[in-house]
Amino acid sequence: MRRRLVALRQPARARRIARALWIAWAIVVWNVVFDRVIVVAGREYVYAATVAAKGAGPYARMDDWMRPAVTRARWSATAAGATILFVGLVAVQLSVRRSRSG
C-alpha cells in the first residue's frame, strides 16, 4: 500500500491524475449546468402552459420554450465547463513549472 502511495506522488503521475480530475470536474459541471437550465425552462413552460390553459393567454407550444432553452443551456454549460477546464489545466501547468524551478 505504501508503495502505491509513493508512486502516486511521483510528479508525472500526479500531473496526469490532476489533469484527469480537472477534466472530470469540467464534465460534471457541464452536465449540471446544462441540466439546470433545461429544468428551469421546463418549469417556466409548465407555468406558461397552465396560464394559457386557463384562458389568460395564447396556447403555449413546448417547442417555442425548449428550443431556445437548449441553445442557452449549451452555451452556458460550455462556458462554465471551459472556464473550469482552462483554470485547472493552467494551474496544473503552473504547478509543474514551479516544481521544476524550485
Short account of what is shown:
By secondary structure, the protein is mostly helical.
Question: Your description of this structure?
Answer:
- The chain is an all-alpha fold.
- The chain has one domain (18-101).
- It is 88% helix and 0% strand.
- It has 3 helices and no strands.
- It has helices spanning 2-8, 11-53, 62-101.
- The longest helix is centred in the N-terminal third of the chain and has 43 residues, at 11-53.
- It is rod-shaped, with a radius of gyration of 22 Å.
The description of the largest β-sheet is: none
Strand content: under 5%
The end-to-end span amounts to 29 Å
In percent, how helical is the residue content?
A: over 70%
Radius of gyration, whole Å: 22 Å
Structural class: mainly alpha
* Mean pLDDT over the full residue set: 88
- Number of domains in the coordinates? 1
Per DSSP E runs of 2 or more residues, the count of β-strands stands at 0
